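thought: fold this chain, then report.
action: predict
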Amino acid sequence: MANELSCRCRRRLASGFELDAELRIPVDESPVTVLFGPSGSGKTTLLRLLAGLDRPDHGAISFRDGTWYDGGRGICLPPQQRRAVFLFQDCALFPHLTVAANVEYAARGETARKLMDVFGLAELADRFPRALSGGQQQRVAVARALAAEPALLLLDEPLSSLDAATRGRMRQELRRMLLNGGVPSLVVTHDRMEAVALGDWMAVMVDGRIRQAGPVQNVFRHPADAQVAESVGVENILPAEIVSHHSGLLTVQVGPAQLQCIDSGETGPVVACIRAEDVALTRDSPQVSSVRNRLPGRVLSVTLEGPLARVELDCGVPLVAVITAQSAEELELKPGDDMCAVVKTTSVHLSGADHRFPWSVGEGVRPAKPHEKR
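observation:
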């Protein structure tokens, strides 16, 4: 379709890692797409294939009405013909050129001046990159990229080189810059907060494969399987068995407890996905109420994380809750306390249990260690 970025790429690296990715992005509907996944999942490899910096072993890449690569037809456009600008992590500004000269490097006519104004760079025009903050360098890099009037903007972990405080401030500013630039953008990140702040559309990559794609909030709230759920930061991924269907609801067995959730049509082996912020805690004993899912358990640990508290419980299955630090103080939580976890029916999402999670009901999942970046 004319409004898509489409790729089917296979690429085997010298390390033995194999990328086998299929992805379609509706670029007109989604100004900013996030390519999300853990380190080592192949995100940068895919970005380089799209840019033309590396060549697939097999497959095809097309953008709008043009074919960028087709192994079967012998088509492989060089980067300059694709008009896909690649922004590296370190911005790669020319150190010997001023801000104005960097932006003007690939600009035509009045383009550079307009971009300098849009991105608030006029007062920095005569400075050299070494005299700029990390956030200012990022603005110059994006302005210079847009000055080339690209068809597609590819950004590889654009905020990773910034300190935590600057990175937090730059998220919304970067999104504003990308929207103002008017060019479809594909941003690589492994940071969940960046994915939510930057993206309209999201593709989750795990072990060289695209496992799920769609609007950002849909992917975060409704992961397709256990691996995607783990990647997007679902803290509670619990093996479950479907017990019964009734009036649009499912009852599932999770360890010693039964939970109710919306019937989403899942069959076969499943996992119950519950975000930690959707778990409320009470000292009341389980009882009939409008909230159907109440799991008695015992507090294992309480960890303060700024204004929040992370509470790990044993409810027959491991369960994590994230509540406010004030709530934790009011409940006087401490290890060994009996506590009841309360979860709304709408907060339990069932996903497929893929081959990497062959546990029995009653076991929990532990986050995998990140792999080396690819």
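thought: worth noting. Residues 355-373 have pLDDT under 50 and may be disordered.
final: tokens above.
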